[in-house]
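Forwarding these from the shared drive since the link keeps breaking.
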Amino acid sequence: MLSGNSYRLLNWKAWKNIRKFCSNARKVPELTKDRYPVTRGQYAELSSDDISKFEGIVGKGRMIVNPVDVEPHNIDFIGCVRGYSRVVLKPKTTQQVSEILKYCNSRKIAVCPQGGNTGLVGGSVPVFDEVILSTQNMNEIETIDQVSGILVCQSGCILEQLDEKAHENGLCMPLDLGAKGSCHIGGNVSTNAGGLRLLRYGNLHGSVLGVEVVKADGTVLDLMSNFKKDNTGYHLKHLFIGSEGTLGIITKVAIFCPTASKAVNLAFLGVENYENVMKTFLQAKQELGEILSACEMIDAESLKCSTKPFNKSSPIADYPFYMLIETSGSNAEHDEEKLHNFLNNSMNSGIVLDGTTTNESKKMRDIWFLRERIAPGILMDGFCFKYDLSLPLKQFYDIVPAMTERVGSLATRVCGYGHIGDSNLHLNVSCPEFTQEIYKRVEPFVYEFTHKLKGSVSAEHGIGFLKPNYLKYSKGPEALDLMQQMKTLLDPNGILNPYKVLPKRL
């Protein structure tokens, strides 16, 4: 059995194949400016002199200007938004990032930071013709300290590769995502990504000890720290965790990595209704306690997205709801006994109808694939409106039947899955292609419904381009005003990732 959770997700080759598979199955989306109401800001347009300046900073080999090669960087992963940038810059060092931003700020050229481009809210691609600053070549791991558990690396490191290096040192990354094989740690931190391990390890505001950031004017902020306790003035790092590249570009990260678990077990359960999903989660917390590391819910319609397109099957019979419950500990015999007792108790009480448990790496990998392939699988329907919501557990699933009724035959399917342990639902509404008719049925209804339940319009994916106008459903005017003041202070010319996060279009 593999140690920790390294078996869990698609490796980077598999993930890239899935992305290619999904891309080939969908049409190239229309330009963002034609699909959504947005006006280009008063930014400079690129000249040949600008291109020459960029080449002088990064070198010809780290600059893409061929339109065919630039195009993939202009389109987001789910095919929802598309810009028309002319150039992709791939700096290798913080100094090069600094020089690029200093020049762009002086010329008022808009810049779009981009990592692995796995975001789901249009935050990592241009809206118009912004210069794309890719962190792909900033992929050096500087240090890993086994004793302290601190890993220091550049922002372009791929999450899965960091996890592999951490495991070699008896550690694991506190973050685990479906896009693990492609996403960059800088993008993860910039969006405060959540993922599957948040139930166990918390969010990145707790795990990230320090960051290095380049401001819009090229100033380098050294906010690095190798201590969990560093109470020295304002905690400036938190400004940039979750700011989605609108306040500065993260170039380096120091992150605390917990010790890798020696014993991992996984249960896949069948449940009759959502009420019993809640009861199962409560029982899991009570009986599994300190070894509970993940608790996921999948409805039947979601599971179809990860079985049929990829020729997979469920290890148990068909049920309205499924749950994945993972334990991670240090004593295999103890953990296995606790999980089996939990399963026996939940089945004897009738809240779980069927289930299977395993600690074999291949079987665990096969089960996690069913969860991780939902997102790419649903894209096979054509187009998908994807929503990432935090909702009270008692009403956690209510929005799925409500949305089903609202969109009716316009949708191919409406389904929900996600992190029940963190109150985070992923709502999906798929259809053959994007139309204004279904778009207006879905939005703003989904955000109004969430607001009435006092939920969050974005649990872990961020705001990006698609949600700024709906941020008001989760933040009051005073908070939004303060956000705008911070943006103006740190980026007075508004060149960093414009049209994103804040409701006011710059």
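-- next protein --
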Amino acid sequence: MANHNQKPHAIMIPYPYQGHITPFVYLAIKLASHGFTITFVNTHYIHSKISNSQSQQNCLHNKDDLFARARESGLDIRYATVNDGFPLSFDRSLNHDQFVEGLLHVFSAHFDELVGDLVKSEDPPVTCLIADTFYVWPGMIADKYNLCYVSFWTEPALVFNLYYHMELLKKNGHFASQDNRKDTIDYIPGVEAIEPRDLMSYLQATDIWTCVHRVIYKAFTDIKKADIIICNTVQELEFDTLSALNKYQPTYAIGPIFPSGITKAPFSISLWSESDCSQWLNNKPNTSVLYVSFGSYAHTSKEDLLEIAHGLQLSGVNFIWVLRPDIVSSDETDFLPVGFEESIKDRGLIVPWCKQIEVISHPAIGGFLTHCGWNSTLESIWCGIPLICFPLLTDQFTNRKLVVNDWKIGINLCDKELITHEEVEEKISNFMCGNTTQELRKAVKEVRKTLENALGQDGSSEKNFHQFMKDIKVNARKRAGLSNGHTSPLYQNGNGLTH
């Protein structure tokens, strides 16, 4: 039987997409810096992508172990990789549905085998599994090996809460009905009101049996088995939502989960080689550059890209545009207007990928045209940059609601049904040069203070983080039969929140 004075040892497994991996890595570093042993697990494919991107930038420290440098600094972070069920050459973006089916039905067997080996061999013994909420099998694996099960939600608590109450949306005809209702939704616990257009794309869909829908249904059944839920959000920004969730399960807001010294990450975890934009930015006036990026995963149509490109061209503003080669599709990489790059060469820079935090923290950046991914939203707030919102998929529509309607730190790129270059030009020109931007900047600074305060020594996120670590230890002791275990005092108060 394990000695209860031994260090807690957590296996961590992110969902295999950039937006999930990033906060998982930073959480691993934070837990290790507080005395945890961590075994971090990536898929073979993700490991290969990160290793290749680092090799191209000549910044690879150890191609077989992404955490070698972290260990040299004294952190006990081990590293393992696991087969996701597909060969490295398989195009996971082009064959998205087939890949997701594999994550649903095949991946668990490979991960189960790895966990079994780690449980048998690791010292200190493994006591905890911290898994991405979108996996459908962590509850089963945690039970099998008698591990504390922590579900890590990398998006806002509002999005989690809406998925958690899918049955309520279904019962009221706002989801999974022949003709989804369009009136305001005002019956979700912890959500005062939300419009159907602000629901996640999967809850607005008419086809509700796609592979991703099945992932969501199973994941939010499995979540009920979690001992602890942690969210990459801030209590003060989503207090009512978190209070409602805590009536069901202990749920802690521990975000934003950033590395210390946010503008300089401890090591690269990018899936793509990152362009250095600093020299170009150094030659531009303060707040004169619009940063444009639609993230690491979502796709958009060639038609929309052409309208955005034309609008940027007409606006006359300086910009950096991150354009992934697969932004439309892996097999369609020619999507810009003829002559576009030549026409904007003095004021525009187009790169396939970049060090986003380093770019948006540069004084030359004055705004961010974004897909509203949650990491991008938090990073932009931290850097004091207002947002132009162009959501494409999943949680991004709900994140836009928080940005535009609730916190008032951004605007919509398009208010019409179809995006047009005329509207893009008008919105970008007004955003970069108009009076509204000053109001947005002021609002962003206020929200940034909330993030800063939450991460302070007596802040809500820091207190929740320490309570979360205590809960893991209590749960591990309980599972080992070393104590009866005690529910955290925060959860006993009925809301799981510090005051």
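Confidence is low (pLDDT under 50) at residues 485-496. The chain has 21 helices and 13 strands.

- D.
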